[in-house]
Design a protein that fits this description.
Strand order of the largest sheet: 6-7-8-10-9
Number of strands: 10
Shape: globular
Oligomer: single chain
Radius of gyration: 16 Å
Number of helices: 0
Length: about 140
C-alpha cells in the first residue's frame, strides 16, 4: 500500500507499527511518543527513545461511530459507520485507540479478542493516499 502517513510521527506504514517512546530510566512506554520527559510522575528522567510498539494486542473496549465525526475527520462519501477499538498492546500494556478495518462485524467484537495493527487508507487527498493504523481481528486458531 502506497501513500504517506495521515499524521506524521505516530505510525510507520512500512513496518505496520505504532511509534511510541520508552523512558531509558524506568522503562515507561508512551503513545503518542513523548520527547524530552518521562510520562511517569515518579521518574525524573528526561531521556526517552523512539520505539516501535507491539503489532498485536487485545480489545479492551469498543464502540460504534454511527454518526459522522466533525472535522478534521475526512469522511467517505457517503459516510459509512465504523468501529473504534481501544486495544491493550501485548508487550507494553498501553491502551491505544484506532479504527477497526472496514467490514468488521459487531457480532465478532468482544473484549479480550486478539487484534493486529495493519496499514490502511484513511482518506485520499490530491490523488495521494493518507495512511493510518487500523486494527484487524486475528482469526482464532482451532
Amino acid at each position: 500500500m502506497t501513500g504517506t502517513p495521515a499524521v506524521e510521527g505516530f505510525f510507520d506504514p512500512e513496518a505496520q507499527a505504532l511509534i511510541g517512546s520508552k523512558c531509558t530510566g524506568c522503562g515507561t512506554y508512551a503513545f503518542p511518543a513523548r520527547q524530552g520527559f518521562c510520562p511517569n510522575p515518579h521518574c525524573g528522567s528526561d531521556t526517552v527513545d523512539l520505539v516501535p510498539l507491539s503489532r498485536t494486542g487485545k480489545i479492551w473496549s469498543y464502540t460504534s461511530a454511527s454518526y459522522q465525526p466533525p472535522p478534521p475527520f475526512v469522511p467517505a462519501d457517503p459516510f459509512v459507520p465504523f468501529f473504534i477499538l481501544a486495544v491493550e498492546l501485548a508487550a507494553e500494556g498501553l491502551v491505544v485507540l484506532g479504527q477497526a478495518v472496514a467490514g468488521t462485524d459487531a457480532q465478532d467484537l468482544r473484549v479480550g479478542r486478539d487484534v493486529e495493527v495493519v496499514t490502511d487508507v484513511l482518506f485520499t487527498e490530491d490523488g495521494e493516499n493518507k495512511l493510518v493504523w487500523k486494527f484487524k481481528l486475528v482469526e482464532a486458531t482451532k
